[in-house]
Design brief:
It comes from Kineococcus radiotolerans (strain ATCC BAA-149 / DSM 14245 / SRS30216). With 420 residues, the chain is α/β, with parallel strands linked by helices. It is built from eleven helices and 18 strands. Strand 11, helix 7 and strand 12 form a beta-alpha-beta unit.
C-alpha cells in the first residue's frame, strides 16, 4: 500500500520559461511582496525563479509582460471525476452507499478524466485538486491529489492516498436509513470508535504474528478497512472530517483526541462558533463551499465571513468549492467574496495555493513558485481576486495546457489545441 508518488510528472519532459511577468511566489516566507522576474521550468520542475534568471537556448518562452504570475491553485476538497455535473445517476460514482465504513475504497478508482469539470478547473487556474468520496457514509474512503490535466488517472495522480474521508452530521444520518448504517450522531461516533478499535486490534494481531514468525493470511474486507485506518492511527495519512455544525466539529476534535490521529476539518461552516477550540488545537480548516444557499439545517449559519475569522485567529485556512456543489471555476470568486467579508487578501491567495498544499501534505510538489516544485504556473490578466480577471496561460508540470486568446483552448493528447 505504498503511496503513488511519481518522481516526475507523467509523460515526456517539459521545459518552459515564463518571462516578463510580476511574480507572486507564495512561498512559506512570502509577505505579499511581488517582483518582476522569470520562472524557468526544466524537465517538469521549477529550476529557478526571480529576476535575472537566464533562459537556456532552445527553451520555449511564454511572454507574461504586464501580467501577474502565480502558482497553480489547489482545491482541497472536490468530487471532480467521481460526480459529473448534469449526468444524474450515470455520473454519480461519489458514494458507495452500501458501505457505511468503507476505508478500503479509493476515490481515484472512480475518477473519469473526461469529466468536463477538469477543463473548467484549468480555465480558473486550478491545477491540483483533492478528490474525495462523498459524505453519505461514516467512512467514505481514501482520497487522492490529482492534476487537472491528463487523459488517464495514472497520468493525473500526484499522490494517493493523501487521507481518508469521514462524515459527521446530516448526510450519513440520512443514508444510514437505507444502508444499515447509524442514523444518529451518537451512533456515528460509536461507529467511528468501533472502526478505530478494530484497527488497533488488527495492528496488534499483525505485530504478534510477525514477532512469532507466523504467516499472515490475506486480509478480509473488514481487515483491509482496518489496515487503512491503522495508517491513519500511525500518522501516515490524515483524517479528512466532513463537519458543518459546531457540535459535529467538537465531536471530530473529541475523537481525534481519543485516538491521536491527524485531523483536517472540512467545511467548518460553524467553525467561528467553536473558534477557541480550533485555536487551542491549531487545527487546519478547509472552508466552504461559500457560494451556496442555506439549503439544509446544517448550513443555517453559513457565512462568507468565516474564512476571515478563522484566518485572523491564526488558523491555516484553505478554500474549497466542493465541486460540483459549486462549480470549480468559481474558486477564485469564492476567495474574492471572502475578502469582501474580511479575509486578508494575502491570506486569500494563500488559501488557494500554499495552505491547501500544506494541509494535503503535497507542499513539496505544489502550492508556490519555488525551485524543485512541479512546474505549475499560471499567467493572469489581472489580480485573481478581481472577478473580471482570467487565467490567460496555464502550465501544468511544465506543459502549457490551457490558453485564452478570446476563447479558451486546452491541449489535447495529440498535441493540438482544441476549444474548451
Amino acid at each position: 500500500m505504498s503511496p503513488y508518488d511519481p518522481a516526475r510528472p507523467a509523460g515526456p519532459a517539459r521545459d518552459v520559461a515564463v518571462v516578463g511577468g510580476t511574480l507572486v511566489e507564495l512561498t512559506p516566507d512570502w509577505r505579499g511582496q511581488r517582483r518582476p522576474g522569470t520562472v524557468l521550468v526544466r524537465d517538469g520542475r521549477i529550476a529557478a525563479v526571480g529576476p535575472g534568471v537566464p533562459v537556456p537556448a532552445g527553451v520555449p518562452v511564454l511572454d507574461a509582460t504586464g501580467r501577474l504570475v502565480l502558482p497553480g491553485f489547489v482545491d482541497a476538497h472536490t468530487h471532480l471525476g467521481v460526480h459529473a455535473e448534469g449526468e444524474g445517476w450515470h455520473g454519480a460514482d461519489v458514494n458507495e452507499k452500501g458501505e457505511p465504513r468503507g476505508a478500503r475504497l479509493r476515490s481515484w478508482d472512480g475518477v473519469d478524466p473526461a469529466d468536463r469539470g477538469f477543463l473548467d478547473a484549468l480555465s480558473a487556474g486550478v491545477t491540483t485538486v483533492a478528490v474525495l468520496p462523498g459524505s453519505a457514509n461514516v467512512v467514505g474512503g481514501q482520497t487522492a491529489a490529482l492534476r487537472t490535466w491528463g487523459t488517464t488517472v495514472e497520468q493525473m495522480l500526484l499522490r494517493a492516498p493523501i487521507g481518508v474521508k469521514s462524515a459527521l452530521g446530516e448526510n450519513p444520518r440520512k443514508n444510514g436509513q437505507s444502508s444499515g448504517g447509524p442514523t444518529t450522531r451518537m451512533g456515528i461516533a460509536a461507529s467511528l470508535r468501533d472502526s478505530f478499535a478494530a484497527a488497533q486490534r488488527f495492528t496488534a494481531r499483525r505485530e504478534r504474528a510477525r514477532a512469532g514468525g507466523e504467516p499472515l493470511d490475506p486480509p478480509t474486507d473488514r481487515e483491509r478497512d482496518a489496515e487503512v485506518l491503522a495508517r491513519v492511527l500511525a500518522g501516515e495519512i490524515v483524517w479528512q472530517q466532513h463537519a458543518h455544525r459546531a457540535d459535529d466539529i467538537a465531536t471530530a476534535v473529541r475523537l481525534a483526541d481519543e485516538f491521536g490521529y491527524r485531523l483536517v476539518l472540512n467545511h467548518v461552516t460553524e467553525g467561528h462558533r467553536v473558534l477557541d477550540l480550533l485555536v487551542e488545537r491549531g487545527l487546519p480548516a478547509v472552508v466552504g463551499p461559500l457560494l451556496t444557499s442555506r439549503s439544509k439545517p446544517e448550513l443555517r449559519h453559513r457565512s462568507m465571513a468565516v474564512p476571515g475569522l478563522l484566518a485572523a485567529a491564526g488558523l491555516r485556512v484553505a478554500l474549497t468549492t466542493d465541486h460540483p456543489v459549486v462549480p470549480i471555476q468559481l474558486l477564485p470568486v469564492s476567495a474574492a467574496l471572502a475578502v469582501k467579508e474580511g479575509l486578508d487578501p494575502d491570506e486569500a491567495l494563500r488559501a488557494l495555493t500554499l495552505n491547501p498544499a500544506v494541509i494535503l501534505g503535497i507542499d513539496d510538489r505544489v502550492g508556490s513558485l519555488a525551485p524543485g516544485l512541479d512546474g505549475d504556473v499560471v499567467v493572469w490578466s489581472g489580480d485573481p481576486l478581481e472577478v473580471a480577471s482570467r487565467a490567460l496561460h496555464v502550465v501544468s508540470g511544465g506543459r502549457a495546457v490551457y490558453r485564452w486568446d478570446g476563447a479558451g483552448e486546452v491541449l489535447a493528447p495529440d498535441g493540438t489545441w482544441r476549444a474548451l
